[in-house]
């Protein structure tokens, strides 16, 4: 039977080291299968998160050969197996154990974004009418499985650790989904500019590249939001109008 | 033993659709609500649901109504459902779906801008509100985002190991933080179990690691009854190749959109056997079936959209009789629709985006140009905690159950889409009534000795002198259930299964864990074994006792339905000496109005 070696991060909190595990592989295997095999036979306490094993829940995020990816959607036949496959946790979040990181910050950030607020129903029975064409755009954003891989790769968070000032690409996508929701009537632009730090994003596009749901984060979500912010706050005519109306 | 204590009025165990909906409702009832889940928020099983939410909105076909939905559900469940639950479900599902829209869910639209509905097996009219094939994600995210602004306290990555009772009443739960391994006690006046299913009792399953029947077993140990445990749903279409993806679900939506099943001879074998109760509603030629999937209201549905139990057995038959596909399944083909519609490729990618990616990435198959290979996978459990239809309270006062871990609505077989609607309808009811219960009743005192003993049991796997690998035990259990209590059942095999389970129980008592308590999956697996063993035994015992075939329960030695079993539900509960006691509960007679509804829809 064919075998492959996995160089897996084993750690407690901030300390740890890579350890090599060699295991049998069968056709079609993904990295998560290999981790499970190692867990079942060689390291029963190897910690990792997973749920759906089909790229739907966003639990199994890790860095595989240095790239942020879902373990359950990374096929072994797409990796060079003549050398060890490195598997390590997302590095932009505090490590807990082995492949598990503390992603709780993301849940806190989300709470700070103004929730959905629908306009009054369109029909007497309390329902709304929306055309498919109008919901296509938000449906793209709503595909997000909250794997936080985009957060992991964004240099504002990863290198500059600006977690206090910047909500990161995932939550810009979330804000875009709400802002562009045909029924929504809340205003999040002030928040985006002042509290959520949309200005820190310099459109490197790294987030878009790693998104397993193929959401075009930068072009479709962040840039339009940035434009709205500019229109609202820096457009001289609007600025004047605001002065008069306040 | 040291542990933190938290106090709530209502405590919800489980943050899938049912748990979230219950927590939102309980919170609206003005009480203090805690929500606990084993994974991170938003990762529960519900996130994986694909096809849609069944509700008679009648947006696509105005002949639909709660009555048709009710009759479909009862027919699908072969009339051993709790008719009151089926009625409430059919009546209330439309409002629950509209409510999701008001909370921000974005469903696919009809041409006049309303919520679009799709065809699904056993539903007479297009009934499933959906978002492509990621409806569960839309639902869980909507509930989660709505819920966090409702003042719920969420305790993520926390496993409940015991439901505590005092004087026969629920008093709270005890468990441990997965991350740090620390124990916590939650005291509350009412506890709602919304822990989902138990697919992990089988080797081939669409369920995640969470589906180990915890709520079923926690309720059982707390004195509640479980019913209908013999009724397991084997979904006809799971992936079968490559081996590492075996069991992953292929949504019924593929067939709803016109996908067909063929054997290796290219024959649409589903036309070969159409059960009597469905004959009037089923197309007898391919042309009519196709027209149905394209919305022709005069056409009858293709036999691929018969109920899941039937389709799974037909696939099983084809494979057994040597007409299967190379890897032991059959072919499911959606690509053929390009002979009928233009831009079929784009259409398929738009309607079934995650199926397209799933096959492309995991199996190197392009579903827009070639057929998939599929076979049955353990998917859902119809059985669960016996509850009151209106309030969802179990026979233990203060202990409620909702969603997949509760039983009644589905009878012997669940229709696709009826789970997501069940979560909403009965999640809401459970939350509402638990809040009422909590307002009317004080928190019960907690028995310290019971807490100590739960903690001791939880730590036992760390004791020295143990030798068994918990993963190996789990594997052997799954293998035994798959082989001996699977789709086709036989008396001798089930007796054998009970013997195997006894041996596994002894091995589980010797399960050993290495390392320490912090995020230790070996430990978690060892503790799940107890739940898996309890639910597996319940499944085997009930299946042995039901000497007939009905819905998800098929006995090769009793292949027909038997009148004796048409009016009862199997029930188990823990007897005083700790053994499993089996009883037959008579089904109350259906009121004349509901009987008439069923007659009218025949
Ligand atoms: C791939 C797939 C596709 C599906 N598609 C559809 C569909 O299209 N339509 C449909 O109607 N149904 C569908 N189903 C079925 C449906 O998704 C499930 O029945 C439903 O989501 C179950 O929801 P629930 O709220 O009862 O539990 P779950 O969503 O399973 O949630 C259970 C919760 O309980 C928690 N929990 C469990 N045990 C413990 C414990 N011991 N301590 C603490 N917390 C615990 C878990 O962490 C989780 O939060 C599908 C199922 C699968 C697997
Ligand atoms: S485009 Fe913006 S959000 Fe995305 S990775 Fe670059 S800086 Fe971060
Ligand atoms: S936007 Fe994409 S990468 Fe970011 S969390 Fe969502 S799914 Fe993951
Ligand atoms: S396990 Fe769900 S995305 Fe990988």
What form of chain B results from the Cα inertia axes? globular
CATH architecture of the largest domain in chain B: 3-Layer(bba) Sandwich
Q: Which CATH class of the largest domain in chain B applies here?
A: Alpha Beta
CATH class of the largest domain in chain A: Mainly Alpha
Number of helices of chain A: 10
Named CATH topology of the largest domain in chain A = Fumarate Reductase Iron-sulfur Protein, Chain B, domain 2
Domain module count of chain A: 2
> How many helices of chain B does DSSP assign?
16
Number of domains of chain B: 3
Across the major sheet of chain A, the strand order is: 2-1-5-3-4
Bound molecules: flavin-adenine dinucleotide, iron/sulfur cluster, FE2/S2 (inorganic) cluster
Helix/strand class of chain A: alpha+beta
Describe this structure in words.
The complex is a heterodimer of chains A (246) and B (602). Chain A has 246 residues and is α+β, with helices and mostly antiparallel strands. In chain A, 36% of the residues lie in helices and 15% in strands. In chain A, a hairpin with a 2-residue loop joins strand 6 (95-97) and strand 7 (100-101). The termini of chain B are far apart. Chain B has 3 domains: 4-234 and 379-449, FAD/NAD(P)-binding domain; 237-378, Flavocytochrome C3, Chain A, domain 1 (Alpha-Beta Complex); 460-569 and 577-586, Up-down Bundle (Methane Monooxygenase Hydroxylase, Chain G, domain 1). Classes of the chains: A alpha+beta (246), B alpha+beta (602). At the A-B interface, helix 1, helix 2 and helix 3 of A face helix 3, helix 4, helix 10, helix 13 and helix 15 of B. The complex binds flavin-adenine dinucleotide, iron/sulfur cluster (2 copies) and FE2/S2 (inorganic) cluster. FE2/S2 (inorganic) cluster binds at residues 50-53, 55-60, 70, 72 of chain A.
